[in-house]
Design a protein that fits this description.
Structural class: alpha+beta
Low-confidence stretches: 1-54, 310-316, 336-344, 359-365
Number of strands: 35
Length: 727
């Protein structure tokens, strides 16, 4: 399955907080004469370790539904919860839903009416039953809890069908819905029923069970519809396998239960009228919210939240159905003919296609008036895959992951000399014919350098716009590159010598990636344009031939990035193949253009923290242009759905707890007035210009406008005292 294209064996890991393993110092006093001297040294400092409780995700208590008995339609549930502060009682909420196979949907067996405020339409909502406060459940002798689903002091007999905890509304819109609920919510001993037990107290827990009409445990019939991990990739509380977000007062922790209430029989009162009700089923909500469609519900508007992958909701195609749907069967849905009575599938279309002729009338079957066709398939193919070319697109993206750059050697990678890089593109260890694949003209090779074991690319500017931090690039063209026997090995020679800052012995790297900021950057295989995985290899700059390259320290699991940003476009590259190359330009020595001097650094750690921290500890993040030019990451409402305190959502190996100042440099301070120290750089990326925050940093670090330099940091001449209090 192509779900999320997580190819961790090929991805080099991006460093956000600390960087790669150290290299020995090299040779050449000025990089030109080959005399062996030591260019720099840095002291090994003890990493400052942070163990702040607030930075650990809040875990759910382990819970389980251990037994369900059904007697004459009455459900009795026994469940256990480990780790309760008060084991004598518990406050819980119960839900019960039935799977309607012919609708491929769940229907709540508990129903009610719902009005949010005066003037709202009285609509139908799924219901639940809450045992809290004075009605909290007391523990059994063995510590478990047992409850027979009841209302008003009497057990509910579900053989009578879906139970209304509140009076059913009536009217022209309500009557047919109530009839449908009575039909689809009728008792069926062979059906699958989903029981949910959810916390109604400070300690969080959720238990889910699937049973038949006799109470026997059965499999979830919709387990392959979407992957639970799909939700957790963005909304996850890592470590417990359940989601963490603020819906329903943070009392909903398992997406399996969402559809128990949010289905085709549930509506929103604040946006409904006496002639048309607003649905709040899962399909409509998820598609509209993630698809960048302003979507009002419960007197709030979820607008411009945007699924982070640009392929969803930004006009580049809906290929990322696979980001959530994990089985091809789920987007290979047969498109119904208009008027066949199954308008639910047509509603799939209008959750994204909101403009005419794709508008609300489509759900009523009126699209034929605009098209003259009686079937969607007459124009658009017979299934969702055919309409949107999902499988071919995913196959092409997956194929790109099979092709990787291999660097065989680097020579003359030192100041005053023009580097020579030998490389190839391989699939399954076999080098391809670069001429046949039209490789020339589509790639760039770069050499970069740093201070200590971090990258800065100081002393070089790619353009004239004031940007800093780019390595020295050369385009792979017929003028710079020759092909060896069989056209499998390319030799690329830089057109210009490396600048003086690229001294021998400095920690350096070689990278190959798609052509920067152009639509090219691929090879042609079987007529398809394929972008190989970006390569980054580290070494000590030297005039001599280098054949062995290191990898960067594993700080962040790249799969965490790709899980959300499967096909995100930046600089005409795709994250699934090029995300490793971001650090080539976005490093400790980076500055954006002159027009955004107030932003300062565009170090990858800084911008990733800043953008994901919007709405929590940061109000905005200006990117490339000043706010007046309209490109600001608050205007775009780029809200990270999980809590930024869950560092493990991206970080691995406890890398978020330690920063070795010998291996991770601080970022350039605003207006290029010095360098901030590493811990402060991390903190300020989220805590932007808060009263007292920078003053606090200034007392124990380098201050918002840094007083240090990268050379000082690399030499170990600067030290932060954060760990004195925060450990």
């Amino acid at each position: 399955m192509l779900h999320k294209l997580k190819n961790t064996t090929r991805y080099l890991m991006i460093a956000l907080v600390a960087l790669a393993a150290g290299f020995a110092t090299g040779c050449g006093s000025d990089g030109k004469d080959g005399v062996t001297t030591v260019i720099h040294e840095y002291k090994e400092l003890e990493p400052a370790t942070f163990n702040v409780p607030g930075h650990e995700p809040r875990q759910l208590l382990p819970s389980e539904i251990s037994e369900v008995t059904v007697t004459n339609g009455e459900f009795t549930v026994t469940f256990t919860i480990d780790g309760l502060e008060d084991e004598s009682e518990v406050g819980v909420e119960f839900t019960l839903a039935k799977y309607v196979a012919n609708e491929s949907d769940w229907i709540s067996m508990l129903q009610r009416n719902r009005i949010y405020a005066s003037g709202d339409e009285n609509v139908i909502r799924a219901s639940n039953l809450r045992m809290e406060g004075a009605n909290a459940l007391s523990a059994n002798a063995d510590g478990s809890f047992t409850w027979t689903i009841s209302h008003g002091g009497s057990a509910i007999d579900f053989t009578q069908g879906a139970y209304w905890t509140h009076t059913a509304p009536t009217g022209a819109v309500a009557d047919p819905i109530v009839t449908s609920i009575n039909t689809h919510g009728a008792w069926d001993a062979d059906a699958v029923y989903r029981i949910g037990v959810t916390s109604r107290q400070g300690e969080r827990f959720t238990a889910v069970a699937y049973v038949n009409g006799s109470g026997a445990f059965v499999d979830n019939p919709t387990a392959t519809d979407t992957a639970l991990l799909s939700c957790i990739d963005c909304h996850g509380d890592r470590g417990n396998g359940l989601t963490a977000f603020g819906a329903h007062s943070d009392r909903r922790h398992d997406p399996q239960l969402c559809a128990s209430c949010h289905n085709q029989w549930t509506f929103d009162s604040s946006n409904s009228t006496d002639t048309a009700w607003a649905p709040v089923d899962m399909m409509t909500m998820i598609h509209k919210i993630h698809g960048d469609t302003p979507y009002p519900i419960a007197e709030s508007t979820y607008g411009e939240i945007r699924f982070p992958d640009w392929a969803f909701g930004r006009g580049n195609g809906p290929q990322n159905c696979a980001a959530c749907h994990v089985s091809g069967d789920n987007w290979n849905i047969t498109v119904p003919a208009i008027g066949d009575g199954n308008d639910v599938n047509i509603s799939n279309c209008i959750t994204c296609h909101t403009d005419a002729p794709f508008n609300a009338t489509v759900a009523q079957g009126d699209h034929t008036a605009n098209t003259g066709q009686a079937s969607c398939g007459a124009c658009h193919g017979q299934n969702m895959d055919a309409i949107h070319s999902i499988t071919p697109t995913l196959s092409a993206i997956q194929a790109a992951n099979d092709y990787v750059f291999v660097v065989h050697s680097v020579e003359k990678a030192v100041a005053g000399q023009a580097p020579v890089v030998k490389w190839s593109i391989e699939k399954d260890g076999v080098a391809i014919d670069l001429a046949a694949a039209a490789a020339l003209g589509n790639f760039e090779v770069a050499i970069g350098w740093g201070a200590g074991d971090d990258f800065t690319n100081d002393g070089f500017s790619r353009g004239t716009n004031g940007a800093q931090g780019h390595p020295q690039f050369v385009s792979v063209t017929a003028d710079t590159t020759t092909l060896g026997t069989g056209n499998t090995i390319a030799t690329t020679t830089f057109a210009e010598s490396l600048v003086d800052a690229a001294e021998a012995g400095r920690y350096g790297y070689v990278t190959i990636m798609g052509t920067f900021n152009t639509a090219s950057g691929g090879i042609t295989i079987d007529g398809e344009n394929i972008k190989p995985n970006t390569y980054v290899g580290t070494f000590a700059l030297a005039a001599s031939k280098v054949e062995t390259f290191g990898e960067r320290r594993q700080i962040v699991d790249t799969a965490s990035c790709v899980g959300c940003h499967t096909d995100v476009y930046r600089h005409h590259t795709r994250a699934n193949v090029d995300i490793v190359g971001c650090i080539a330009c976005h490093n400790a020595g980076s500055l954006s253009r002159d027009a955004s001097a107030v932003q300062g650094t565009v170090d990858l750690m800084y911008i990733v923290h800043a953008i994901h921290g919007l709405g929590e500890n940061r109000d905005k993040f200006e990117r490339r242009y000043a706010a007046a030019d309209g490109f600001m990451y608050r205007d775009y409402s780029v809200n990270y759905p999980n809590t930024i305190a869950d560092c493990t959502a991206c970080h691995m190996n406890d890398s978020h707890k330690a920063v070795d100042t010998g291996k991770r440099l601080g970022v350039i301070a605003n207006y290029n007035e010095g360098v901030n120290l590493p811990h402060m750089s991390t903190c300020v990326s989220c805590h932007a210009d808060e009263t007292g925050t920078w003053e606090h940093f200034s007392m124990i670090a380098a201050g918002k406008v840094g007083k240090g330099s990268h050379t000082d940091l690399a030499a170990g001449n600067a030290r932060e005292a954060c760990a004195m209090c925060h450990e």
